[in-house]
TrEMBL record:
GO molecular function, one term: diguanylate cyclase activity
GGDEF domain boundaries: 323-460
Catalysis performed (reactions): 2 GTP = 3',3'-c-di-GMP + 2 diphosphate
Transmembrane in keyword set: yes
GO BP terms, alphabetized: cell adhesion involved in single-species biofilm formation; negative regulation of bacterial-type flagellum-dependent cell motility
Protein's recorded name: diguanylate cyclase
């Protein structure tokens, strides 16, 4: 066995020294990693997109509140101490603590009206989960703010954003609501309450959604929120009928989304009454909507915007019913020459006369006529095969022969004539309503190329049923 020398002791000391240094460095690295994770956790809590509280299970003392929670609850911070504002009474704090206990024990969401300042309040929905924070057992309170005050304007007048939104909703003729995946209605307008058979919004908002047994198929489809709905890239739209007397038809638009903060699923519902398109008698809401924004100023018939909206609605109805929908595009022949000869003022008067003539031809109140663009007019004929659309076009030609509006500079006749393109098809789910107009435009172009003052049919209309 060899004898240890002084050199051996020196090497051992160096090895122990290096080991100590490595241990210290490793400890420093672990400490820095721990601090980094702590900072990351803190940042995550601070910037999480919902109001978040950490509350001690021992004495209900607030351990942490992110910025949204501080704003919503009007909390005051003094160093690390987080306190309620002076206008939050002791009874209100006690009630909040009771609801926290209840939410944790029952695994349920709770609601509370919370004072903001001396005159206003917000409604808060929250749920409690068990966690550990700063080395002690705690409750994590995740909160959603349902109604929040807007910031004061420069002239110190403040408004309630929820009141403003409610006014906008109530001004709409459509039924509108936001529903939750637990079967509750978060908010709605009066039209939606009436749809559910209630007289007041308070009977629906914040309450479980209920409906008569005989109407279950209609409402169950509307209120169902599936994972497939959440993943859908576009809002879900369909036509359905409500089993009431008299029968009612609705165009339903459902936009489903998942909250990134709570993972809860919500849906915005917009339900439009389209019974008028089946009965042929416009509802009061539909008439009011027309008068507000839908009429073209010069001729008094509906605008292109309203035409596009109507076509989109009827498109979905006819897909569901598997019935043919007809569109006619109608151009006044050589109207540019007419304007150059008589002037724009006389041209406008003639367009008004043309619009009246076209309206006289329409025999069904469910048919739609619009000024589409310049001297172009457009028709929508619901539930109309190609033979019926051609019959309407023939009546239009006969009407202009009868009224004999002078047109001395026309290349076609000495009176005003029109060219038309027709399409009549059963819409398909993989087609768009805009394609229908494009088909009619193709037929109209063909009519002009063949000499004007005639009607041409989009070729598929003769073969596709």
């Amino acid at each position: 066995m060899s004898q240890l020398t002084w050199e051996h002791y020196t090497q051992l000391e160096i090895a122990l020294g290096m080991g100590s240094i490595i241990a210290v460095l490793a400890g420093i690295a672990l400490w820095m990693l721990y601090r980094r994770k702590i900072r990351h956790l803190h940042d995550m809590f601070v910037h999480v997109p919902c109001a978040l509280l950490m509350v001690s299970r021992k004495n209900h003392q607030i351990l942490f509140a992110n910025a949204l929670a501080q704003h919503a609850l009007q909390l005051q911070t003094h160093g690390r101490l987080v306190q309620f504002s002076p206008w939050v009474s002791a009874s209100q704090r006690e009630y909040f603590s009771e609801l926290i206990d209840k939410s944790y024990q029952e695994h349920s969401r709770q609601f509370i009206d919370w004072p903001v300042g001396e005159d206003h309040s917000v409604q808060i929905e929250f749920q409690v989960k068990d966690t550990v924070f700063q080395g002690q057992t705690a409750w994590m309170v995740q909160m959603l703010i349902h109604h929040e005050c807007a910031e004061a304007t420069e002239d110190h007048h403040s408004i309630r954003t929820d009141d403003l939104m409610q006014q906008l909703w109530d001004a709409s003729p459509d039924a509108i609501a936001v529903i939750q995946d637990d079967g509750y209605c978060r908010s709605c307008n009066l039209s939606f309450a009436h749809l559910l058979g209630q007289d007041e919004m308070a009977q629906v908002t914040g309450q479980p959604l209920t409906w008569p047994v005989q109407e279950a198929p209609f409402f169950q489809q509307m209120f169902a929120l599936t994972e497939q709905d959440v993943e859908a890239e576009q809002p879900i739209r369909y036509i359905d009928q409500l089993a009431r007397e008299p029968r009612q038809w609705f165009d339903v638009l459902k936009s489903v989304y998942r909250s990134p903060a709570t993972n809860q699923v919500f849906a915005l519902l917009i339900i439009r009454d389209i019974t008028a398109w089946y009965s042929g008698e416009p509802s009061v809401q539909l008439v009011n909507a027309h008068h507000i924004h839908s009429f073209e100023q010069l001729t008094g018939i509906i605008s292109r915007k309203r035409f596009d909206e109507t076509l989109e609605t009827l498109w979905h109805i006819h897909i569901r019913e598997k019935q043919p929908l007809a569109v006619i595009l109608c151009d006044v022949d050589c109207f540019e020459s007419y304007n150059q000869h008589y002037g724009d003022e006389q041209g406008d008067e003639t367009l008004c006369t043309v619009a009246l003539a076209l309206q006289r031809v329409m025999s069904r109140s469910s048919d739609c006529i619009a000024r589409y663009d310049g001297d172009r007019f457009a028709f929508i004929l619901p539930n109309t095969h190609i033979d019926g659309a051609c019959w309407v076009a023939e009546k239009i030609h006969s009407e202009f022969k009868q009224i004999q509006l002078p047109h001395p500079v026309s290349d076609v006749s000495n009176h005003v004539t029109v060219s038309m393109g027709i399409v009549s098809l059963v819409p398909k789910t993989d087609e768009l309503s805009e394609q229908f107009v494009a088909y009619a435009e193709q037929a109209l172009h063909q009519a002009k190329m063949q000499g004007r003052n005639r009607t041409c049919i989009y070729y598929e209309s003769l073969g596709r049923r």
